[in-house]
């Protein structure tokens, strides 16, 4: 987490208030929407070649297909697609689609984008350099290197947004989205403007500015003072206060993420304690999830869930995952009177201190001392990727339509994510994930994913789902046309406009 947040907040407040007058004038003249976002994670090594796509999707780029608010797949750059056999998919691009600079979108551009992701090792769909076979300018086949029938469901992820060949994905990506990049200053702002060559309805806004303001207090003051029109990631108490203020409105998205307590199952040295299944179960039993939702997170924006992803993704199959029941007495019995000390880290941009302290207090009741160190984003990634932790609190989001998305990304032994080696569950879990990836139908995949989740959560206790949460926005009543998406990465700003 950010060092000295109070000091940073004061500096940000002074800067924001000093520029409020000129920002208001610019917004009136240019029809500009200014959004206060959280920390800027684009400079992290993992994200440098995904500017405007991940972890903030600014509407610059479009993938072949898009994710609906119901977690289904709909056409985007691809007009249609068909499965050719057990693994290959043939796509047909929309005719006469152009990049923002006027160049035509071709199958070769698709092949180049996917190859770049493969080389950067950020692809998670089992693609290789030879996965795309170009048939003509608008037709191509994609063949994953391993059996993966979930490919189309995965390609909705914004990181698969198609980039014009020759443009720089780290500094100046040229794409086909409703907006195009204007300017980016690390840790300060990212500005996009309407793309008049966009294939769909043109955005009513001329300009959209994302201001990177890590501190929620500073974001709130910016909104109250009128320097920004909207803020992202509003806390429970703050949402209640803002909802009462005239001229402001608070909007919650449908549930799109789950707070998960990850366990280091394969750690070494001082981080090997959670290899013990009985200790993992004691940790899970010690946490009262109902109380977390009621007293810390708030009923309006959270709910107790047992699945790793939002239950809506799993449908009726969500019932196969029961979760470990809260039982302090049994958790203490499993501890056998021994005291333990565990190290915990937490994702700095998505987990607040109240949640961290709640988990610490719950585990202290059964004799587990949880040592927590506040880390910035780079230090957190380093600790996570080297296995220097026992427990890890995160807020993974369901950002594609694949029901096995998070399972294959974070716990599967063949995942390209570096930290997966420490989370990896078992060969039985792997087999169920592979069954989900190879299933012929979405319904069959969902059922296999639920079985894998049951193995992960109920049997092996490799992770503890704590609560499903919704992203909360606060905005001026002048903001119109905003429709919150459950997936944080798939939020669309192209329909938003500002009333006089």
Question: In the CATH hierarchy, what is the architecture of the largest domain at level 2?
Answer: Roll
Looking at CATH, the homologous superfamily of the largest domain is Dipeptide-binding Protein, Domain 3
Shape: globular
Helicity level: 25-40%
Task: Give the C-level CATH assignment of the largest domain.
Answer: Alpha Beta
Rg, nearest Å? 23 Å
Amino- and carboxy-terminal Cα gap: 38 Å
The tally of structural domains comes to 3
Sheet-strand content, in percent, reads 15-25%
The CATH topology of the largest domain is given as Dipeptide-binding Protein, domain 3
List the helices and strands and how they pair.
Blueprint: H1 5-18, H2 20-30, E1 32-37, E2 65-67, E3 73-75, E4 78-83, E5 89-93, H3 107-119, E6 132-134, E7 139-142, H4 151-154, E8 179-185, E9 189-194, E10 207-212, H5 216-225, E11 230-232, H6 236-243, E12 248-252, E13 257-263, H7 277-286, H8 289-297, E14 302-303, H9 311-314, H10 328-335, E15 340-346, H11 353-364, E16 368-372, H12 377-386, E17 391-394, H13 405-410, H14 420-423, H15 427-438, H16 442-459, E18 463-469, E19 472-476, E20 479-480, E21 497-498
Parallel strand pairs: 1-10, 1-11, 15-16, 15-17
Antiparallel strand pairs: 2-3, 4-5, 5-7, 6-7, 8-9, 9-10, 11-19, 12-19, 13-17, 13-18, 14-18, 20-21
Helix pairs in contact: 1-5, 7-10, 15-16
């Amino acid at each position: 987490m950010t060092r000295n947040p109070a000091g940073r907040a004061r500096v940000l407040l002074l800067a924001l208030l000093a520029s409020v007058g000129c920002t208001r004038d610019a917004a009136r003249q240019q029809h500009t929407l200014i959004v206060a976002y959280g920390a800027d994670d684009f400079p992290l090594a993992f994200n440098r070649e995904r500017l405007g796509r991940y972890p903030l999707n600014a509407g610059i780029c479009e993938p072949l297909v898009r994710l609906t608010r119901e977690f289904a797949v709909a056409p985007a750059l691809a007009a249609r697609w068909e499965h050719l056999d057990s693994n290959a998919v043939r796509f047909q691009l929309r005719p006469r689609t152009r990049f923002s600079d006027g160049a035509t979108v071709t199958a070769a551009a698709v092949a180049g984008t996917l190859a770049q992701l493969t080389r950067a090792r950020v692809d998670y769909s089992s693609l290789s350099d030879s996965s795309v076979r170009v048939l003509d300018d608008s037709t191509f086949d994609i063949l994953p290197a391993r059996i993966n029938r979930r490919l189309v469901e995965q390609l909705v992820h914004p990181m698969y947004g198609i980039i014009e060949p020759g443009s720089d994905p780290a500094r100046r990506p040229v794409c086909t989205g409703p907006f195009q990049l204007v300017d980016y200053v690390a840790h300060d702002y990212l500005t996009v403007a309407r793309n008049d060559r966009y294939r769909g309805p043109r955005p009513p806004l001329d300009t959209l500015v994302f201001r990177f303001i890590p501190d929620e207090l500073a974001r709130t003051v910016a909104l109250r003072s009128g320097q920004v029109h909207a803020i992202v990631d509003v806390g429970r108490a703050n949402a209640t206060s803002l909802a009462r203020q005239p001229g402001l409105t608070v909007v919650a998205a449908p549930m799109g993420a789950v707070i998960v307590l990850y366990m280091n199952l394969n750690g070494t040295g001082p981080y090997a304690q959670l290899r013990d299944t009985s200790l993992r179960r004691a940790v899970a039993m010690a946490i009262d999830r109902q109380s977390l939702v009621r007293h810390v997170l708030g009923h309006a924006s959270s709910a107790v869930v047992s699945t790793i992803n939002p239950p809506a993704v799993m449908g009726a199959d969500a019932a196969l995952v029961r979760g470990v029941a809260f039982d302090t007495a049994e958790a203490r019995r499993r501890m056998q009177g021994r005291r333990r000390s565990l190290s915990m880290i937490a994702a700095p941009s998505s987990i607040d201190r109240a949640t961290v302290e709640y988990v610490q207090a719950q585990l202290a009741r059964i004799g587990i001392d949880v040592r927590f160190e506040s880390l910035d984003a780079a230090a957190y990634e380093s600790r996570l990727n080297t296995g220097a932790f026992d427990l890890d609190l995160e807020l993974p989001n369901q950002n594609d339509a694949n029901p096995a998305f998070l399972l294959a990304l974070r716990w599967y032994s063949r995942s390209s994510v570096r930290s997966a080696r420490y989370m990896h569950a078992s060969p039985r879990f792997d087999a169920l994930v592979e069954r989900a990836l190879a299933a012929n139908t979405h319904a069959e995949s969902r059922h296999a994913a639920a079985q894998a989740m049951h193995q992960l959560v109920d049997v092996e206790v490799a992770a503890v789902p704590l609560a499903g949460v919704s992203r909360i926005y606060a905005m001026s009543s002048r903001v119109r046309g905003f429709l919150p998406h459950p997936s944080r990465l798939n939020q669309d700003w192209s329909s938003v406009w500002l009333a006089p």
